[in-house]
Amino acid sequence: MKNDIVLAGVGGQGILSISTVIGQAALNNNLYIKQSEVHGMSQRGGAVYAHLRLSDRPIYSDLIPLCGADLVLSVEPMEALRYLPYLKSDGWLVTNIHSFVNVGNYPDSKLLMAQLKKLKNSILIDADAIAADCGNKKASNMVMLGAAIPFINIEIDDLKKAISAIFEAKGADTVTMNIRALLAGYKETER
């Protein structure tokens, strides 16, 4: 088993939380993991991304080459478009359709969506609306993680356990809300 994932978004959207949950679940399953992340601009609303590599065999590099990712998981559509060159020809894109407009020349949303819909293997969902229905719009990152479960090769129960362990210090309500968001995202993919 090998799975190369590029996580993408904007600072404050929870990319590193997604990476932590997947990483914890992978370690709990005795998988090898390598991770590389860039989050220097996160406090200014800049791009944040992570390369996450999982395998049942040793991994020698933490970076995913162009055309090497099995999955691009993005919580922001323009960032999804930015990291498409990493996606394998048979890889999957899972992205939020809700834009985080943080620059004056942000592309037209209709044009952006038209480009993303051209991909044969893509799932585009309104994670912000789904998270709001779950009780907290900030949980859109867990909605996105849930939508990507079929492409990660980690069982949903293992991800739920990782969420519980990671967020337990924030209280039972936070754990419950994040798991609810994960399950809601998963339901979107199963439709």
Structure description:
40% of the residues lie in helices and 24% in strands. With 191 residues, it is of the alpha/beta class. It has one domain: Pyruvate-ferredoxin oxidoreductase, PFOR, domain III (Pyruvate-ferredoxin Oxidoreductase, domain 3, 3-Layer(aba) Sandwich), CATH 3.40.920.10. Strands 2-3-1-4-5-6 form a six-stranded mixed β-sheet. It is globular and about 40 Å long.
Rounded mean pLDDT is: 90
Number of extended strands:
6
Strand order, main sheet: write it out: 2-3-1-4-5-6
Q: What is the 3D shape?
A: globular
Helix content: 40-55%
* Span between termini: 26 Å
| Element-by-element helix/strand order | EHEEEHEHEHHHH
Within CATH, the superfamily carries the name Pyruvate-ferredoxin oxidoreductase, PFOR, domain III
User: What is the CATH domain class?
Assistant: Alpha Beta
Q: What is the fold-level CATH name, i.e. the topology?
A: Pyruvate-ferredoxin Oxidoreductase, domain 3
Q: Helix count, per DSSP?
A: 7
**Radius of gyration, rounded?**
15 Å
Biggest pleated sheet: 6 strands, mixed
- Annotated CATH architecture: 3-Layer(aba) Sandwich
Quick summary:
40% of the residues lie in helices and 24% in strands.
Output the keywords.
6 strands, six-stranded mixed β-sheet, 191 residues, Pyruvate-ferredoxin Oxidoreductase, domain 3, alpha/beta
What's the arrangement of secondary structure elements?
Blueprint: E1 2-10, H1 15-28, E2 32-38, E3 47-55, E4 69-74, H2 77-82, E5 87-96, H3 109-117, E6 122-125, H4 127-134, H5 140-148, H6 156-167, H7 172-190
Helix pairs in contact: 1-6, 4-5, 4-7, 5-7, 6-7
